[in-house]
Amino acid sequence: MTFSREISIERCDDNVRKPDSDRVVIEAPLQLRARGVPVATIMRTPGHDLELVRGLLHAESVIAGAVSQVDEDAVELDCEPAAFAGRGLLSSAACGVCGRVAIADLETRAKAVDGDTAIARAMLAELPARLRAAQEVFEDTGGLHAAALFTTAGVLVALREDVGRHNAVDKLVGWALEARIDPAQHVLFLSGRAGYELVQKAVMFGVPIVASVSAPSSLAIDLAERFGVALAGFVRGARCNLYSHAWRIR
């Protein structure tokens, strides 16, 4: 599977400009078809497409039977097209399915994350470096987001990369569902901003701790607080901000 390609560029360094080449992340559309009817288009980095779709369907509470890859640009779902009515899943890599779900709606589909799962702050501080070390495509391009599942002992369970933050999480959740991973003892670590949609996906998945190298949004914090999820932002070395359920990070 090709995640990147080489292109010719003009590189600027102060007042010096010169021809050069660079590797860039591939972004391409993936069409979702429900029994042959197109119902959604996702802009994503090719690869792990079935995991991406399973994770997206799970987060959106769409029940489908068989999910199969038709070709490199399409996935077929065994469900009625009506299951997607009003969902507006024409999504870009930048925004995923932003702004469609409110906390009140999520109340009908999700439950609070229970249990006493916690992680030591010293261990949390090590996760950014462990995430970065495992980002193979980012190493090649510098242009991908990542979502990773760690144990509370800091063991990397799985990592997925994509040009879209939402896609990376959907791919990871799709893999975990297929692998029957129990999320209750794990940490979801994000390479970028922790917005509402990403925390929503974490709540639907049932993971108790979400951490990011960047900032959360106000709605993401409200959501994490309501559903029992610890939310840590600006995790950079020994520094971080704790925004909800700080007791889970000791």
Structure description:
It is built from seven helices and 13 strands. It has 250 residues and is an alpha/beta fold. The protein has a domain of 128 residues: 3-Layer(aba) Sandwich (Cytidine Deaminase, domain 2), CATH 3.40.140.10. It has a six-stranded mixed sheet. Strands 5-6-3-4-7 form a five-stranded mixed sheet, covered by helices on one side. A two-stranded antiparallel sheet has the order 1-2. The longest helix is centred in the last third of the chain and has 15 residues. It is globular. The N and C termini lie far apart (40 Å).
List the keywords.
250 residues, 7 helices, 28% helix, alpha/beta, Cytidine Deaminase, domain 2, six-stranded mixed sheet, 33% strand
How are the secondary structure elements laid out?
Elements: E1 4-13, E2 16-25, E3 28-34, E4 37-44, H1 49-59, E5 67-71, E6 74-77, E7 90-91, H2 103-106, H3 121-134, H4 136-141, E8 145-151, E9 156-162, H5 165-179, E10 186-190, H6 196-205, E11 209-212, H7 218-226, E12 230-236, E13 239-244
Parallel strand pairs: 3-6, 4-7, 10-11, 11-12
Antiparallel strand pairs: 1-2, 3-4, 5-6, 8-9, 8-10, 12-13
